[in-house]
Design a protein that fits this description.
The chain is α+β, with helices and mostly antiparallel strands. 27% of the residues lie in helices and 30% in strands. It has 14 helices and 31 strands. The protein has an eight-stranded mixed sheet with strand order 5-4-8-2-1-14-18-16, with no helix packed on it. The chain has a six-stranded mixed sheet with strand order 17-20-21-22-24-23. The protein is globular, with a radius of gyration of 27 Å.
């Protein structure tokens, strides 16, 4: 071997080693321990020893609408299904976000008028024994209760708690006061935090930025409101027949089994009155859901319809829309919801909608809760379609598949942006979120303070929160669909949903499932898109050699991402042929030569498309002279 060839061989070996090192996905210690304990498997399945804890909540809430006060009492049965002895129970008191001196990092500034003394706990008993102050520690929005008697594995604990707090009147962070007699109520009850096999107790305090991570629980809830108020909530209304006048209830029951949109409460109905009987508290029941929220108003209209979500069984989802008579486009939201749920059930992901009920409540912001969404009005109809279909699609992530939004918001948001894109364009022709996200990502990718997408969501700055969790993460899944092909991608996604429905997957479980089902090592893909700091999409046509009818087109990857290639050859405005290459081609180097044999005259060669990001598209066209 000559000296030159030895140097060449060493160089190749070195570069291959570096490439392999860069393609390695870091497995956190928690996942490594889970593999050892067999609570999770390396092929992406839950392990034979997988477990998760849960709670049964029996809650009563009384809402003083005039003074914006909420008083609650609850009996909670906590199930420790782990093999661990628990010495502390961790509660989340989300309304302590508004506590004086609280650590806030909210995407919406907190109005000083809403600052208060925090959630007032008036009574706390653990297994019928009152907790004393020495047992309780409050930190941020967390309340840690040290148990007098440790909780053994595979046991249950009974907790009784009373509380009250001032409801925010000026600040709207996923919930709040909509108008003087309308409220959207969420994050309102003392909630036991998640204790899982990866992290133990989730002790990340809520600061108004990242979203939530909850157990799958059962809820029985009574909500007392002033006379003449309607309440829409998570779950099934148990006593609606007693609380609505007969004609209103009759309209509702007919609408709940109809494909037509029925106006159950109209402006005329409100003027006439006699809607509610004021016979007592509203009672709702929900099982195996991660949270409970509700909206109330004494002047909202109510449209009701339904849609078949499973053609085999005839199963339906009842859809209600509660809105102000001046709510822009809200008269069309029932139709948007029907078409969205139908598309989600039949097309992408192609699994029957998980819930029997859905209420789209006109609030402010855009936020999802099980069986109820909080979305504000928007003058632009395309944005209206996007906001509602997006929040409705969250039923799959994180409400069916319990991903951790606090740490890994990119999973649920990326998938939920991606899944309803086609139905959004169908409902609002000309509105294309895939193109919009591609354009946004192309502009913002690589900005100076952009961290790796795998960075825990709760560390993100508001400026990059939306770019990473929505624009870039949607690109991750759509580029992967191009890479695998739509059929195989969907097979992988359906396997992930099936394996992890009503469970708590981590990113590693997602990666391993896709590799297992696709029979491909996709670490190179995840490494480039999730573990690289920044990452700029930038490809260019750097050379075109023409030999009669043969075109050798050199494409260079000037950026950091393994993007798919689409090269189109034109004769004037006529498309002659398009050549597609997968992103994996970039593993062999930063230049790819694409050959096209054509009989027709070619006047230009164009690289890319409106749904493949490129930060510098100026060098994506070659004019044949």
């Amino acid at each position: 071997m000559t000296k030159l060839s030895l140097i060449t061989a060493l160089y190749i070996l070195f570069t291959v080693s570096i490439a392999n090192a860069q393609d390695k996905v870091t497995i956190p210690n928690g996942n490594l321990k889970a593999f050892e304990k067999q609570t999770r498997q390396k092929d992406g399945y839950p392990g034979k020893n997988y477990w998760q804890n849960s709670s049964d909540y029996n809650l009563k809430a009384e809402v003083d609408v005039a003074n914006k006060l909420i008083k609650g009492s609850g009996s909670i049965t906590y199930h420790n299904n782990s093999n661990d002895t628990l010495r502390t129970i961790v509660f989340r008191l989300y309304q302590d976000l508004f506590r004086k001196g609280g650590n806030r990092h909210s995407m919406v500034p907190v109005d000083p008028a809403d600052i208060h003394d925090g959630v007032n706990i008036t009574s706390l008993q653990v297994d019928n024994i009152a907790a004393d102050e020495k047992q309780i520690k409050r930190q941020g929005t967390l309340m840690m209760v040290r148990l007098k008697k440790p909780m053994p594995p595979h046991s249950k604990l009974n907790i009784n708690i009373d509380w009250n707090f001032s409801f925010p009147q000026k600040t709207l962070i996923r919930m709040g006061t909509i108008d003087s007699t309308t409220m959207f109520v969420a994050q309102w009850y003392p909630q036991i935090a998640v204790y899982d096999d990866i992290y133990g107790w989730d002790t990340r305090s809520y600061n108004g930025m990242a979203e939530f991570y909850n157990d799958f629980n059962n809820y029985d809830v009574e909500i007392k409101v002033p006379d003449n108020y309607m309440v829409w909530a998570t779950g099934e209304a148990l006593n609606m027949k007693e609380l609505l006048h007969a004609d209103i209830y009759s309209k509702y029951t007919k609408a709940a089994a109809s494909d037509e949109i029925n106006h159950v409460i109209t402006s005329e109905t409100l003027k006439r009155g006699n809607i509610t009987t004021n016979a007592g508290a509203w009672k709702y029941k929900a099982q195996n859901v991660p949270d409970f929220a509700f909206g109330l108003s004494n002047h909202y209209l109510w449209d009701v319809t339904s849609v078949i979500t499973d053609k085999t069984t005839g199963k339906r989802t009842t859809i209600g829309v509660a809105y102000h008579e001046n709510g822009v486009h809200f008269e069309r939201v029932a139709s948007i919801a029907r078409e969205t749920i139908k598309a989600l059930s039949e097309e992408m992901p192609g699994i029957p909608y998980p819930f029997p009920y859905l209420t789209a409540f006109q609030g402010d912001f855009g936020m999802e809760y099980p069986m109820i969404t909080n979305v504000g009005p928007d003058e632009d109809f395309g944005t209206t379609v996007y906001a509602h279909s997006h929040e409705i699609a969250h039923a799959y992530f994180p409400f069916l598949v319990g991903t951790n939004e606090t740490k890994n918001g990119w999973i649920d948001e990326g998938l939920v942006v991606f899944m309803p894109e086609k139905v959004q364009t169908k409902l609002s022709p000309g509105f294309d979120i895939a193109k919009s996200n591609t354009h946004a990502f192309s502009i913002y990718a690589g900005m100076e303070d952009e961290p790796a997408l795998i960075t825990p969501t709760h560390y993100l700055d508001p400026k990059v929160y939306f770019i990473l969790n929505y624009a870039k993460s949607e690109q991750v899944f759509r580029m992967l669909e191009i890479e695998l092909g739509s059929e195989l991608f969907k097979e992988c996604l359906l396997a992930f949903i099936d394996r992890w429905k009503y469970k708590h997957p981590t990113p590693i479980d997602l990666f391993n499932t896709f590799s297992d089902v696709s029979k491909q090592d996709l670490n190179w893909y995840w490494s480039a898109w999730l573990y690289k700091v920044g990452g700029i999409p930038d490809m260019a046509i750097t050379n075109v050699k023409i030999n009669k009818n043969r075109y050798d087109i050199t494409v260079s990857n000037k950026g950091d991402l393994p993007l798919p290639l689409m090269v189109s050859l034109y004769n004037g405005d006529k498309l002659v042929t398009t050549i597609n290459e997968k992103g994996k081609r970039w593993l062999t180097g930063n230049e790819i030569v694409i050959t096209a044999d054509v009989k027709e005259k070619i006047t230009k060669v164009v690289l890319g498309s409106e749904v493949i990001p490129d930060a510098k598209p100026q060098d994506n066209e070659f004019v044949v002279k």
